[in-house]
Design brief:
By secondary structure, the protein is mainly alpha-helical. The chain is 69% helix and 3% strand. The chain contains three helices and two strands, in the order H-H-H-E-E. The chain is flat and about 60 Å long.
């Protein structure tokens, strides 16, 4: 199959999955006890959020540091991805190693998003 055929096939399968998920959701809503368990879960998740917020208020410096480190990690990952992709395009080796000398090879993923009209490749 060519790219267009695969893309169309993917959308067809996603449409089918959406319909099946709706049927599953309907069956779950009608299942005995499901609504009660769902409500209990929502209450527990709310309590979890409240506890986390309280702990965060008491340990603001620690939570701020975690948030800052997460942002820095995301930025470094973006830089690493860009540098690795540039090397791949140039045909260069992009294998990296961790502190234990374990090699890591790049994994490239292509995704599609809706294009503006008339701006196709």
């Amino acid at each position: 199959m060519n790219v267009q055929q695969l893309f169309s096939h993917l959308h067809e399968k996603k449409s089918q999955r959406r319909k099946v998920k709706e049927a599953v959701r309907s069956e779950l809503e009608n299942a005995k006890g499901y609504g009660e368990v769902k409500e209990k879960l929502e209450l527990l998740l709310k309590q979890k959020r409240e506890i986390k917020q309280e702990v965060a208020r008491k340990n603001d410096a620690l939570f701020s540091k975690e948030e800052r480190l997460s942002k820095e990690i995301t930025e470094i990952e973006e830089q690493l991805n860009g540098a690795a992709f540039s090397q791949l395009v140039k045909g260069k080796d992009v294998t990296v190693r961790d502190l234990k000398n374990v090699p890591y090879d790049p994994v490239v993923t292509v995704k599609f998003k809706k294009a503006d009209e008339g701006l196709g490749w």
